[in-house]
Amino acid sequence: MTLSRRVFMGAVAAGAALGPGAGASARAAGREGTVAASAVVRDDSYDGSALWLRYVPISDPRLLRQYRDQVTTVIVENADRNKVYRHTPNLSMAPGSTERLMESTLEAAREELVRGLGGLLDREVRVSPGPGSRIPHGAVVVGTRESSRVVRRYVAPDELEPVGDDGYLIRSLSNGTRRFTVIAGNTDVGALYGTFAFLRRLQTHKPLTELDISEAPRVANRHLNYWDTERLYAGNNESGTGGLNGENGAIFNFAATGASAALNLPVVLDRYLVAARAMASVGITGITINNVNANNAYLTPEYIAQEAALADALRPYGIKLALSIRYAAPVDPRFAPDTLTEEQMAPNDPAFQAWWNRKARQLQEAIPDFIGFTVKANSEGQPGPQDFGYDHGDGANGMAVAVAPLGMKIYWRTFVYNPDVDSDRLKRAYLEFGPIDDEAQPDGTKGRFLDNVFLQTKNGPLDFQAREPIHPMFGRMENTNQALELQITQEYTGQNRMLCFLAPMWEEILKTDTYATDARGQLLDKRLVGNVVDGTAQNHSDTAIVGVANLGNADNLTGHHFSQANLYAFGRQAWDWTLDSADIADDWVRMTWGNDRNVVDAVVVAMMMGSWEALVSYQTPLGIGHQFTADVHYGPGPSESHLPREDWNPTYYNQADSVGLGYDRSPTGSNLTAQYFPTLEARYGDIDTVPENLMMWFHHVPWDRPMSSGRIFWDELVDRYYSGVRYVTGMRRTWDSLEADIDARRFSEVRAKLALHEADAADWRDTCVSYWQEFSGREIRAEG
Ligand code: BDP
């Protein structure tokens, strides 16, 4: 590949994805210490493949000088002592790889510092195996009290104890005139997380002195679900949905054919390790690697061997594997002779439990830290316990009993909408799961789900729409472990064509007040969705949050450069849901596009932070849900009513007629509102108090209803569509204005996407507004 390079005056930005030495071009152009005044080179062919871990040289010369004084030496004592388990003897990187397999977590921390500091400081950093008799000035020491003499000396056990298994401390310390930094965890993984947090400070130009940081995640299990074959918008073919060279577009290769056949696991590709480092950098602890509409192949010995290889490669980064399974796998003839009959499929049948225990054991033999199973049952055609006469509680518990002795968990999804349960799709999940949570048990406790079961529930009661009310199950399932499921892959939020930063949506969800009450009807003190998820609302000891990931084999791994921000933000919010999404955007922009104030302000403020609300406005404003054309879930289809299930059709959700628009779920309608706690029930149930941005989720809104803006509903609706598109036009213009500041390839790729985005947003506006007009019969008064 030939690198096309352009020379600029003033701004430093070199292609430093390669770490130490990558800034050589910048050095060649100017002398060390005088970087700003010199001409520097940027890599205009850079493709985004390093995600937010690119580590380009610090562009501010004063800061660079300070950092070079503050950071001189990396010390990771005993980095090789705690080797992680490796199952696969022939685990190897693909020929020509630039990443390297790690043998321990502390080695991963050390290598990240070497690479990161080398790139950021634009010079090689010294690596010392131990401090010797004196800790050098500028040392960065990483470790645990077990691994590191320095940590033992400077960090007391009771200071470390509160940060738990995954947390860390970062301290600025001194000894005489020598100043140094200690990054300590109770575990090697905690120390690795601290390392990434430290590097982030440099990447975002934050001070490195007087640090006294103590961080611990609020949620214990921070997982990705990866639907390897579905809703994939980051493949390397032109449409982004698939792959080339026999790959299917997924990030991991299990069954690639043709030119890529030699690149299947156990061969490890660079992109797996880039993804692993990126996941670790935001504290992701696990990944379910296959589609929830599961293929039994993942339970066969051939696949298990490949999964073990993947687990080996990810393990140094603290990332564990799980699998999605098909509930009826035991009857699949491909497992013969180890198959069950239909009669043995009762979840309490010892044969059923023994079968799953055997499968789990096979997995554990190859992957000792295997997490467990994610299960989509009796949903969208997937088999489940109801096919055999049992309910979700029986099914989940049958599997949970089978895997509990192995220390594994069952993530049982609640995305079910059996039409026999209720005519309103949004009510169905709670009606199926709520009674099981309430059920009195023989031992006097309540709730039938076992302790190693998580119910995994989407944020809203429908299906990852751009704005939904919270799922009524949050707070209602007091006696059951609940995992929140968010969708990072942009199925309904623009796929790989639209720029939509999702952190503000997740922040809105996590900070929504459930108004949950206790058994006596008293409001809980802590009752935001985030408190339910992190266990503080109702004293749950085990907690989980799951993001349906957006990784693929595209060069930039996520299809749209800005989709990288959603993966990044998910991890940060999973770690700490109280964070401000604008701060997360600010960090990501600095790490991804540079620290230039103009770029940061323009991208964060004029592009990212309003992009989600804009998308809501031009697609589904004021609470109108699911107006997508069939299956693809991208373009508008408000008039569509041909799908075989009523509740898959846009017309079911919009209920458009001459009176107005929206689905009445108030007490005069389906009464979904009764599933919420009393305060929300009253607020959502009354059209005068429901928030306008959720109005049509709960009410059939008359066209002439006065809105808070002073406009009538029809005019407000039309205005939202138009303002949404205007914002997209604004994003396109803002981006155009940054041409001189952004490397060429990424600039033009984003520019091309924004042009598509603008056209598609206008299509949404025009299709929807003109269709609604057929019912309202009113004039379109809006600024173009
Ligand atoms: C829907 C997707 C479908 C998934 C389903 C699920 O369209 O591909 O299988 O969710 O979450 O949004 O199970």
From TrEMBL:
Family from the record: Belongs to the glycosyl hydrolase 67 family.
Catalytic activity: Hydrolysis of (1->2)-alpha-D-(4-O-methyl)glucuronosyl links in the main chain of hardwood xylans
Protein name: Xylan alpha-1,2-glucuronidase
Enzyme class: hydrolase
Transmembrane domains' residue ranges: none
Occurrences of domain Alpha glucuronidase N-terminal (ranges): 52-197
Family matches, as Pfam families: Glyco_hydro_67C, Glyco_hydro_67M, Glyco_hydro_67N
Keyword NADP part of the UniProt annotation: no
Domain called Glycosyl hydrolase family 67 C-terminal: residue spans: 558-782
Keyword Hydrolase: yes
Subunit structure: Homodimer.
Keywords, comma-separated and alphabetical: Carbohydrate metabolism, Glycosidase, Hydrolase, Polysaccharide degradation, Xylan degradation
EC number(s) recorded for this UniProt protein: 3.2.1.131
Domain of life: Bacteria
Molecular function GO terms recorded: hydrolase activity
Span of domain Glycosyl hydrolase family 67 catalytic: 202-556
Species this protein is from: Streptomyces litchfieldiae
Highest classification ranks of the organism: Bacteria, Bacillati, Actinomycetota, Actinomycetes, Kitasatosporales
